[in-house]
Amino acid sequence: MKKTASDELSIANREIAFQHQEKEDRAAELIIANKELRFQNEEKELRAAELVVANKELAFQNEEKERRAAELIIANKELAFQNSEKEKRAYELITANRELKKAEDDIRKLNEELEQKVIDRTAELEAVNKELGSFSYSVSHDLRAPIRAINGYTRILAEDYADRLDDEGNKILLSIINNSKKMGVLIDDLLAFSKLGRKQVTVSEVSMNDLVQTVRDELIFDEGENVPVFIISDLLSAKGDKSLIKQVWVNLISNAVKYSRHKPITRIEISAYENDSMVVYSVRDYGAGFDMQYYDKLFGVFQRLHSQEEFEGTGIGLAIVQKIVNRHRGKVWAESVLNEGTCFYFTLPKLI
């Protein structure tokens, strides 16, 4: 009986000890569980904070997407507008090309018509010039005989009947003689001008040094008249008709001498230089000169920039110069200052 109670007490103590041990184990597990729970809570808070950041990032990305979408919409609209403009410009370009082609066709047609008109007009002008040259030659030639007759009979009248005329009559006779002489010179110049259109140009090498020296030696001066001081550079040779080119030098040098007559010293400079395939010759004087506003009249037939009383002449000399130079495919021009002098230039093909 006593043994049984002791055993039960022992069993009860063991049970109590076991339960205490269980409680301790459960307490230890609870501590671990609490730690685990705290850890999990901390993880949850960390994940929540990360989730807040992620949500903010997602919201920002959504805003960026919306902004990019808006920009894309605008870009698409702009692209659509540009495509529309391109189509419009393409249509305008097609229209412009059509109009340009039509304009080119019209211009080509007009050029063809103009070329034909120029050909026809040139032929007409050549025919008119030929007729005019023939007329001028014929009239000038026919006038020679009556002018010579007037001059001759007037001289006979002056020589044989001068004593029967008073001073006024003799003065009139002298005027007739002088004017008939001028008329004769004018007719000779006009004939020379007319013949230029008929004369065949014979091209050869022309030594300008020799030709200018010949023209200079042939100049005749009256007693008491200023003899020119010539300054002549080495002149390049050129291609041309020697007799025609000589006439150019005669006319230009004679003009330089004539229009320097009233200066104390007559100084004439003659020079030449190359310019591409041409030789440029010049004759410079320091005489009367002329006003360049009247330049257009300079090379016209019967055009004069000074009075007959101041400087004699027929007004044909420079027209002859221009015609000769043109027939050699050259150019002639002048530069001048009134009362200071003039420089004439002309070009001829240089030797190759």
UniProtKB/TrEMBL annotation:
Record keywords, A-Z: Coiled coil, Kinase, Phosphoprotein, Transferase
A Pfam family: HATPase_c
PROSITE patterns for this protein: HIS_KIN
Entry coiled-coil feature ranges: 32-66, 93-131
Domain of life: Bacteria
Enzyme Commission numbers on file: 2.7.13.3
Alphabetized InterPro entries for the sequence: BphY/WalK/GraS-like, HATPase_C_sf, HATPase_dom, His_kinase_dom, HisK_dim/P_dom, HisK_dim/P_sf, Sig_transdc_His_kin-like_C
GO BP terms, alphabetized: osmosensory signaling via phosphorelay pathway
Keyword 4Fe-4S: no
GO molecular function: phosphorelay response regulator activity; phosphorelay sensor kinase activity; protein kinase activator activity
Protein name (record): histidine kinase
Organism of provenance: Mucilaginibacter terrenus
